[in-house]
Amino acid sequence: MRKTTKDWSAQKYLQFENERTRPARDLLAHVPLEAPRRVVDIGCGPGNSTELLIRRWPEAKVSGIDSSPAMIAEARKRLPQVDFALADIATWTPGEPVDVLFANAVLQWLPDHAALLPKLFGLLAPGGVMAIQMPDNIGEPSHRLMRETAAAVPFAAKLADAARPQLPPVGLYYDLLAPHAARVDVWHVAYNHPLADAGAIVDWVSSTGLRPFLDPLDAGEQAQFLAAYTAGIAAAYPPRVDGRVLLRFPRMFIVAQRA
User: Fold this and answer.
1) I want to staple 162 with a disulfide (CB 3.0 to 4.6 A). Which of 51, 54, 56, 212 is the partner?
2) Are 237 and 198 in contact (CB under 8 A)?
């Protein structure tokens, strides 16, 4: 996948804050710890998931890291009492073992999960929990049409490596973590989000999955790509009885507790 050089837009991301936060709430509900001391939100984004952690464990030391300056700035504005820091998840190391590592919708952007997840799991204190949620929607029309549009435009060469790869099968994650874990749960949930229209779907993905396709293009190419992609989305997601469209969004969840 092409690594974009442009920063994330916290405002665009928060346009669908309720829908994006729902999986974080569902993930948090499966963390079996009552009173962790140290909790880190890795890939904290604008702080919407961090806020959930503070509400769940008000006595814990909760912090957040992200590689996006814009996201960290938004998180600090939202939660000024929390320690947020710019950091690369792949190389980040805490000053002491952590009781909860919470990773909501971030690890899908990082390569080499076979090396990354055991490393992160090893940062936990005994009995600590790593909780992960990742979009698993590469096969959905929203993402299939990105690839098909990219292959059909005259500037396709610019987008040859833009697509995010499919996540590995759940068995790989289980096998990576189970030898060092007291328990490992892996499951999928497919959300169906009612959105205003096809344009709302394009708005949703423009702040996440569509960015590697748009960032390499100039303004004219972006307009051409978006016109073709939006037409495909409109055909793939017909209006329902109330005029809205349903965005199906599968996500993978992993909760692993260290022995």
Assistant:
1) 212
2) yes
- Is there a domain that residue 5 lies in? no
CATH number for the domain that contains residue 215: 3.40.50.150
Q: Which of 247, 234, 238, 228 is nearest to 16 (CA)?
A: 247
The edge-to-edge listing of strands for the beta sheet with 245-258 is 83-86, 61-66, 38-42, 98-104, 124-135, 245-258, 181-195
Residue 232 lies in a domain: yes
Neighbours of 155 (CB within 10 A): 14
Domain that holds residue 180: 10-258
Q: Is residue 45 part of a domain?
A: yes
Q: What gap in Å lies between CA 52 and CA 144, rounded to an integer?
A: 32
Per-residue pLDDT 10s for the chain (259 aa) are: 334 446 555 565 566 778 889 999 999 999 999 999 999 999 999 999 999 999 999 999 999 999 999 999 999 999 999 999 999 999 999 999 999 999 999 999 999 999 999 999 999 999 999 999 999 999 999 999 999 999 999 999 999 999 999 999 999 999 999 999 999 999 999 999 999 999 999 999 998 899 999 999 999 999 999 999 999 999 999 999 999 999 999 999 999 999 9
Q: pTM for this structure?
A: 0.92
Question: Which of these, 107, 112, 168, lies nearest to 133 by C-alpha position?
Answer: 107
